Amino acid sequence: MSTSSPLIIALDYASLDAALCMADRLDPRRCRVKVGKELFTRSGPDVLDALHGRGFEVFLDLKFHDIPNTVAGAVEAAAQQGVWMVNVHAGGGRRMMEAARERLEAGRLETHLIAVTVLTSMAAADLLEVGITASPAEHVERLAQLTHASGLHGVVCSAQEAERLRTLCGEDFLKVTPGIRPASAEAGDQRRVMTPRAAMTAGSTHLVVGRPVTQAEDPMAALAAIEAELAAN
Ligand SMILES: O=c1ccn([C@@H]2O[C@H](COP(=O)(O)O)[C@@H](O)[C@H]2O)c(=O)[nH]1
Description:
This protein is of the alpha/beta class. It has helices spanning 16-23, 37-43, 46-53, 68-80, 94-106, 124-129, 136-149, 162-169, 196-202, 211-214, 219-231; strands at residues 7-10, 32-35, 58-64, 85-89, 112-116, 154-156, 174-177, 206-209.
């Protein structure tokens, strides 16, 4: 089932049962869902079948980062399981990203392929520690332009960079933004955050929301509040 909602709910749970318990409260007409490293490592591909069976479009967020041949094979395997979106790390470079894209094209697989620029949990000091002297915004720009030139559909970035990337890479280039925090929510380990409405105004095409919904006392009320914030004039 396809949806026009920008919301992607991160199912960061430690078991298939817990993830499906949340999925059963969600409506695939009102959001997509994201399967990340913890859930996939615990459940394997069964979680994808279970979510597809419930009508959800699934973003498989495994952030592949390896040599081109290995990443191309992993992306192909994800796409053959019918996921709506899969990602790699842009830091793997142009040849890696091109190999992944070409593998999808060769198989006529229509899964969206995007690349992570700079993790939303990272600030300038974190980049410096790994030898990157550019600011997060500068480094995101560089990696997003490389991703665009490699022919991918878009990037994972923070909403703080979305406006600039809209100018650099165009409206159609996907800007999938985690680090979404309603005004009352804790940032936790995230460093480059934005509210849902500000993120959409800045040019995010999709909003990834995890703990502000999944760890809320009333997850459905938290989700409804985000939807209301997005719908308000
Ligand atoms: O740069 C990135 C890339 C991926 N993520 C993932 O998004 C969610 C965010 O969850 P919250 O609980 O809303 O913080 C999570 O699954 C991350 O693995 C990201 O946060 N930043």
